[in-house]
Amino acid sequence: MNQYYVDLHIHIGRTKSGKAVKITGAKTLTFSNIIKHARDEKGLHMIGVIDCHSPEVLVEIHSLLKNGFLTEYSDGRLMYEGMSIIPGSELEVFDANCKGPIHVLCYFSGLNSMRIFSRWLEHHVKNINLSSQRIYASGKELQHKVKELGGLFIPAHIFTPFKSLYGSGVEQSFAEVFEPELIDGFELGLSANTSMADQLGELHEYPFLTNSDAHSLGKIAREYQIIQMKEPSFAELRKALQGEGEPKIIANYGMDPRLGKYHQTVCAKCFSSADLESKRCKHCGHSRIIKGVSDRIHELKTANKGPAGRPPYIHQVPLEFIPGLGPKLRAKLLDHFGTEMKILHEVSFHALKEVVPEKIAAFIVKARSGDLSLQAGGGGKFGKISK
User: Fold this and answer.
1) Same domain assignment for residues 78 and 165
2) How confident is the model at residue 123 (pLDDT cuts 50, 70, 90)?
3) Is 291 part of any domain?
4) pLDDT at 159
5) Residues of the domain holding 173
6) Which residue from 32, 157, 179, 303 has the highest number of Cβ atoms inside 10 Å of its Cβ?
């Protein structure tokens, strides 16, 4: 068995011809740029590329296969120079059983399954070319279609205040909108960790995923996991999620929830910390309060601790959050040490300070052990490291 760095939520911003896919995604976030950046700069071994249902993206993938830049194995696996690519799609469910929109992730074992899903999806969305489209089918109907094609179904960033399962979609339980036996895991999102999520007893039997939800190349692998697998294939990924045999999630690496955009409850105008019971912000008088993930989980709490054997959740501070580490110094680090994974996990303090100022090297090392002082984020504004 080998261990692999895995990020399963990376959006496509534009097609090869420049047409928008994820409108809020960066223009440089094309399929070809994603796979190169994820492998060569981030050091990932498996990625989930969301928005592959878009017809122009399917054409680009086919072209890369035809020209030998990608290899497709008999099991449907797509490979780019040793890195596995899992095609996926993010969709918005808002049927009669939802009280608000819910984003979900659907993954497939290869290009052919993704093509079939795209053709089916074209009859259930308004614009098949765009990401995160509202699907005009129930959540359970979508689950059954994904399973019919041998896919994986995972609710996305489940606690964020907008367009998520617990943030806006259900009152108490995911069984209100989905069939529990057809869910393969839950993606936590940037503002929650394992100990927070395990306060909901109904999640105890499912694996947790920590993914970047990247809308730009730089955001890739801001959250990820290490998965033990025989090889980086879709079949092995499924086994790891289902707990079948030796494949398994070894560790989840995620941002400290306090760095997330929606961790604490804040005023929507001045971002000051706010009380849920308050009608107006005590600092500026604004009437709109955005409920944080921490408070929402407290409302839903049914358990004090999670099941035994959960993989550790390791707080990881992305390089972009390190004070003073701008693009030039980051490029210098990558030039010396190869990939971001190596810098975050392996390079010694002594080696780091030979390349960047000692203070920055110290920040990177402290981030590994969770020794940094943080200011919590909320209301759509990221937290930050206290200098």
Assistant:
1) yes
2) very high
3) no
4) 93
5) 2-256
6) 157
Within 10 Å of residue 160's Cβ, how many Cβ atoms?
A: 25
Per-residue model confidence (pLDDT) at position 268: 84
Nearest to 113 by CA among 82, 87, 141: 87
Do 184 and 60 belong to one domain?
Answer: yes
Query: Please, which residues have CB within 8 angstroms of residue 21's CB and are 6 or more apart in sequence?
Result: 11, 12, 13, 14, 15, 51, 54, 56, 57, 129, 130, 131
Dmax of the chain from CA atoms? 61
In a domain, 272, yes or no: no
Write out pLDDT tens, residues 172-189.
899 999 999 999 999 999
Q: How far apart are the first and last CA of the chain?
A: 41
Residue 44 banded pLDDT, cuts 50, 70, 90: very high
Question: How many Å apart are CA 386 and CA 367, to the nearest integer?
Answer: 12
pLDDT in tens, 62-93: 999 999 999 998 888 899 999 999 999 999 99
Q: What is the pLDDT of residue 353?
A: 93
Q: Alpha carbon of 142 to those of 6, 69, 112, 150, 156: distances in Å?
A: 25, 32, 18, 13, 14
pTM listed for this prediction:
0.92
Domain check: are 136 and 31 in the same one? yes
Does residue 387 carry a pLDDT above 70?
Answer: no
Calpha distance 40→334 (Å, rounded) = 10
**Which H or E element spans position 299?**
helix 293-300
- 157 CA to centre of own chain: 7
Distance in angstroms (rounded) separating the CA atoms of residues 53 and 116: 9
Total structural domains within the chain: 2
Please provide residue 135's backbone torsions phi and psi, each rounded to the nearest 5 degrees.
Answer: -95, 130
Mean pLDDT of 180-207: 96
CATH of residue 217: 3.20.20.140
Burial label, 116 (beta-carbon count in 10 A; 0-12, 13-18, 19+): middle
Is residue 277 pLDDT above 90, yes or no?
no
Quote the CA–CA distance of 188 and 260 in Å, as a whole number. Answer: 11
Please name the helix (run of DSSP H) or strand (run of DSSP E) that holds residue 254, with its range, or none.
strand 248-254
Give alpha helix (H) positions in 21-138: 31-37, 55-66, 111-121
